[in-house]
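Sequence dictates fold. Next comes a concrete instance:
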Amino acid sequence: MSNRAIIVVDIQNEYFPGGQLPLEGIEKAVTNAAKVIEHARSVKDLVVYFQHESADSEIPFFTPGTQEVAIHPVVAPLDQETVLVKHFPNSFRETGLKALLDQQNIEEVVIIGAMSHMCIDATSRAASDLGYKTTIVHDACATLDLEFDGVMVPATQVHATIMAALAFAYGTVTATEHYIG
């Protein structure tokens, strides 16, 4: 086992067509995520999956027990891989992730998944703040259009802004082919 972990954040059916929150570019992101995961398995990196579930029954998405909350089959975990449930954007918050990484002597994390502007951002910042060497594979992540104060922000700009901010102070941001190459 290496000292690196791949953190697969919320690549769930909810984010695909037919789900409540379909993301821009999710098909490309999941294809790239599968490549990162395959590479991780080949070099014996730890692969940890996150599955977001809503803790509030009033929220109409990420409903526990539904098909939408399931991890997408393109990146399905193997039986021996860890799947942690989370209820917050930060994958470290109240999940046991840090304890697992410390137990496995992990020093470096590679983050992929959804949504760039929310869970990828929060998890990447937390990983860096906790002292892990942090890499974000940007084209293995996806997000959606946002609106603020009457201004529509296209998903491509949301994604680019978050990746630029993460690259500025929180980690290395790279593409799939560069990462696995």
